[in-house]
Specification:
133 residues; mainly alpha
């Protein structure tokens, strides 16, 4: 129940924070440039997602052709997908988060942190993996 409350709180507070930041930026640089900034980051993000997506797709195909399981590349693809969704969401915090997931260096840092988090949850017994046949 605590987790559900936290998620609900984030769903409410995050857009309000994004809106507040956009309003404050609009006060400083004006509404037109602020709107262009949001549109520009969305377009740049879409371009980067497409570029990264095609690159990852070719790497996944190459690994599959070599008989390897592309687990690491599939997780990269998930990060690129989430990053793209964040980039098309209006707001600068979501844009920054999206760009960080698109850049290979910061994406690798996120992957390591996510791996440590999952490993600790598995070791504590909070996370279980079930195989179905």
């Amino acid at each position: 129940m605590k987790t559900m409350f936290t998620i609900l709180l984030l769903i409410i507070l995050f857009p309000l924070l994004e809106l507040w930041i956009l309003i404050e930026i609009g006060k400083v640089i004006g509404s037109g440039p602020t709107i262009l900034l949001v549109i520009g980051t969305g377009l740049l993000g879409a371009f980067l997602v497409r570029l990264q997506g095609f690159h990852l797709l070719s790497e996944i195909r190459r690994e599959l052709a070599q008989g390897l399981l592309p687990g690491d590349k599939l997780f990269d693809g998930l990060c690129v997908l989430i990053g793209g969704l964040l980039l098309v969401t209006p707001g600068l915090i979501s844009d920054l988060s999206g760009f960080l997931l698109l850049l290979p260096f910061t994406r690798n840092m996120f992957k390591k942190a996510a791996g440590r988090y999952l490993r600790s949850r598995i070791e504590r017994g909070d996370f279980m993996v079930r195989w179905r046949r």
